[in-house]
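Annual report, structural modelling task.

Input specification for the zinc ion complex:
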Amino acid sequence: MAKQRRSKRKPLPDLAFKDFFTFAQTERFLHGLAQARPDLCRLETIGYSRQGRPLYMLTITEFATGPSRDKPAYLVHGNIHATELAGTHASLMTARQLLADHGPRGRGLLSRVVFHIVPRINPDGAEFAMTTSGAIRSRTERRPLTPNTLYQEDVNADGLILTMRQKHPDGPFVKDPGDARLMIRRRGDSKPPFYRLLPEGLIFQWDGSDGIRVEGRGFDWNRNWSYDWRPEPEQGGAGDFPFSEPEMRALGKWIHARPNLFAVLGYHTGPNAILMPPSTGSLSDLDADDLRQIQDIGEIGAKHTGFPAIHVINYRFERDPTNNLRGHFHNFGYQHLGLFVYEFELGTMYNTPGISTKEIFACRKRQDEEGVIRRIMKWCDRNPRRAPKLFRSWRRFRHPQLGDVEIGGLLRKYLYNPTPAELATIARNTYKFTIDHAAKHPWLRIEDLTVEQVSAGVHRIRARVANRGELPTNVTNQGKSLARLHPVRVEFHAGEGAEVLSRQAHHELGHLEGLTGGQLMEWFVAAPPEGAVCTIHVRGGTGGNVTEVIEL
Ligand SMILES: [Zn+2]
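The model returned the following structure:
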């Protein structure tokens, strides 16, 4: 007798929170997950970046309980913004934990829900940020170059893009008398030498004057979604038209081909917050019940993470009370997809010494900002094992255009993210939110199926079609009016030899309420004495699709 072959399962790859990942590390980790649990996890590519990197998506569900298209779907994406590398790690942590926590077959969340995880929707920008520590918003490719403008480049060939300081009589900076590593604003009583600060780079067609411009933030893909999109200059970073960026177009197309999508979560880094719609206008632009529900779910995130739940229009309020972000994810997600969508700002090193998001945005005076940076440096000095290598010493360099400069300073990729050590806890907490949020999924069922012979060769088939999930199949009231959120449709197909006697075989039920939304269905079928097979298909939109096969 042949020995029973036991498939030896590979262990899940370890997700160490030591540093952020390059593209190659991300790719290796994704393959590792898919190879470890092929029964739960598949790796696919939804498109390619401008520089040709695959846009990876993990599909995570218990495939034995049905294909992913038949289950309510939850999408997680991260790292739209180049320097926000923590978003990739938080996404990967969610993916790994979903696999690690999966319980007995057919019983856990993965038997009912499918998760789609795009950990790094901007692999080109993230690679630039990860390897050079340079700062771009989203797209690596520059707009047409402008004369007298400085563009970031690793001029001293040390692999990093840092800061250049140069002595200059009009220089607005001096060395911080309290911490020689830092530069602070020049004051009336400041002692020379005075410095000007520029990002490390080269000046395009420089005329030799002091009027050097520095390249702007460039394209911002979180202004490239379709709802309320506005061109530049009305909305900085907007792109040429909605979904003009190949990465965003790939994700947008994928989203619009998934009527089963019921929730979306995007990972970013900024002062920590659970961000909720709206991103323009006022709270009254949302349906009143939807608004309450958005806040209730947001509070679950706040409870797990300790982050404040804030509507995008109120984020940065202390700094800018008129926050209006056009073509932004939240309004797209709510207005065009009809979903409760969230963005998590996972924090930055500004939060690290214990400074709240409100305090960070309240920092208006330069002195306040300088105080914050000093606190960050002190925290790093006191926590050498948990702190990333934030500071690089100033080193002399002969710049081909500017002459003698020093290059060094703070690494932006660390400053603009939580520390990897903190992120391990943060990501565990945001995962808890995702589980709680996903557990509210709409859930279409066929229940109480009965088959009764009412006369010779005539059967009465009854079944209740119900939504036993917490959310309605329309998810939001906004979703009720949207064509993309398909209402529930019940189709009855009589097999060979059988004939439906009822006036109507198929029924449009519209959207079904959460938990209590059900309808008793009835069909009369004429069938031969034995052997006919009938099928009930329920196409439930966001609630998933269900099929019941009846043998008469
Ligand atoms: Zn962001």
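The CA atoms of residues 13 and 29 lie 6 Å apart.
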